[in-house]
Design goal:
Mean pLDDT: 95
Low-confidence stretches: none
Distance between the termini: 44 Å
Helix content: 25-40%
Oligomer: single chain
Structural class: alpha+beta
Shape: elongated
Length: 486
């Protein structure tokens, strides 16, 4: 990969961001990027620790005059969500990202960019490298597997960490200072399916072109969920026709609103025209419902041939159970906060739908800023799953991060932002989950905020990072560090 970001300012931040983009670093594939961070620390003579989960902790001593200042932790995660357009050939395990610059924005061709949270790592390395910057003692903590349940932060040993303040850099909105976030879990359900032999014309239903997005930060946008749409369409077809379902698959990540879903089906020859009409009518309805949030939805019924095939399909009663789960299980926003108007309080996203030989698996990302509501949603899913004869479990649970009424680091950041940019920062909570909750649980006295530059459409191939916002946020980080003297 050529140096496409060369010449952008701040030069060292974009140098390290491009280096990171050269190294495959999807969740679960972080050994190379973790080793890169360790090698960076050693080459700069800094203390470094790498644990079994591949988390990296790097320390840098305080600048002269800052020896008695509180220790500051700079924290982000090294993994990225790996999503690509269906027509793009790309191997996230091996390939470097193909970066593009369009005006003020950096993106990757047909794939996610990984600005979430590669830019945090780039900021941290640039700060550690800069010996001209005045700062307290720094503890840079770069975690793994944040996008798949915060496994790195869960494993992180904090017994030797001394920080009093934390700057989390996993925020995607410049000028927003986050002070609390939701907790969550990954919920799973397997609904068993039996197979029966059936004859019909083979075909497929393809739903694509949805906007997608982050299931926490953008759940309030009302965007369509491809898996849910498939359930509705199969329900419409099943009400009128004899339809056989062979498999149904959609979505790639439970924390990304699914943009595509496909069902492989059989229909009777005499039902072909009616099936096409039902799909066409459904498409019109969906475009009417989602023309603002998802204007490019595409719903296709593809009949592969007019030849009769004999294929194993879902038993009709099991197909009914799958459709019932797709249509009736809770999804999207469940409650809104009464304390903070406009904040989503609890939600869930059916992000992944996969068909195995003897079951269909449903995977949700559940989020809530209230522990009781998180478990209520889990109980609802468990109750429905077991009622339908399936098996339910959850994993990757993480706590919410509570708001502090008194926060010195928040005040420092707000004051620096006002003086640098002549306006007030937005002090807010977020519905997405951050590692702050887990770190706060391990270090309850740690005072923390989350900041970052503008990144749009994260967790989708449309992800793009603002160049000018990266520069302004870097100025903010440097200014904040220089002001923590006592």
């Amino acid at each position: 990969m050529s140096d496409k970001l060369k010449g952008l300012e701040p030069e060292r931040v974009f140098h390290y961001f491009e280096e990171i983009c050269r190294i495959p670093h999807g969740s679960g594939n972080e050994k190379a990027i973790s080793d890169y961070c360790v090698a960076f620390a050693k080459s700069h003579g800094l203390w470094v620790r790498q644990d079994e989960a591949l988390n990296v902790v790097i320390r840098k001593p305080a600048s002269p005059g800052y020896e008695s200042a509180p220790v500051v932790m700079i924290q982000g995660h090294m993994d990225m969500v790996c999503e690509k357009n269906s027509d793009v050939t790309f191997d996230f395990e091996k390939d470097s990202l193909n970066l593009n610059i369009d005006g003020d924005f950096i993106s990757a061709s047909g794939t996610t960019l990984g600005g979430d949270d590669g830019i945090a790592v780039a900021y941290a390395l640039a700060i550690l490298e800069d010996d001209r910057l005045s700062h307290p003692e720094l503890e840079v903590v770069i975690t793994t597997d944040e996008e798949v349940g915060m496994k790195g932060a869960r494993h992180l040993d904090t017994s030797d960490l001394k920080a009093a303040y934390l700057l989390n850099l996993d925020n995607e909105s410049e000028g927003q200072i986050l002070t609390s976030c939701a907790g969550g879990m990954k919920s799973r359900a397997d609904i068993p399916v039996r197979r029966v032999e059936w004859e019909g014309i083979p075909g497929s239903i393809k739903i694509s072109g949805l906007k997608g997005g982050h299931s926490g930060a953008e759940i309030h946008c009302g965007r369509a969920n491809a898996n849910r749409l498939m359930g509705r369409l199969l329900m419409c077809l099943n009400k009128e026709l004899n339809v056989g379902v062979i498999k149904v698959n959609g979505g790639m990540k439970d924390n990304a609103i699914p943009r595509e879903c496909e069902a492989v089906i059989l229909i009777q020859p005499e039902d072909k025209e009616r099936a096409e009409q039902i799909c066409a009518d459904f498409s019109l309805d969906i475009h009417d419902e989602f023309h603002t949030s998802d204007p490019n939805i595409k719903i296709e019924l593809v009949i592969e041939s007019n030849n009769i095939d004999k294929v194993d399909i879902f038993h009709p009663s099991d197909m009914e159970r799958i459709i019932f789960m797709l249509v009736q299980s809770p999804n999207g926003i469940q409650t809104m906060s009464m304390e903070l108007p406009g904040l989503v309080e609890s939600s869930l996203n059916l992000g992944i739908l996969t068909t195995e030989e003897d079951h269909v698996r449903f995977s949700w990302a559940v989020r809530s800023s209230k522990k009781s509501l998180k478990y209520l949603i889990s109980d609802q899913l468990e109750y429905m799953t077991e009622f339908l004869g399936g098996h339910y479990w959850y994993e990757g649970e993480y706590p919410h991060w509570s708001f502090r009424s008194e926060s010195p680091i928040r005040q420092v950041v707000c004051d620096a932002y006002r003086e640098l940019f002549g306006k007030e920062a937005r002090v807010e909570a977020i519905h997405a989950g951050l590692e702050c909750g887990l770190i706060s649980e391990k270090m309850p006295e740690l005072d923390m905020v989350a900041i970052g530059p503008d990144i749009f459409d994260i967790h989708t191939p449309d992800e793009h990072l603002s160049i000018s916002s990266v520069a302004r946020t870097y100025d903010l980080i440097r200014t904040v560090l220089s002001r923590i003297v006592k």
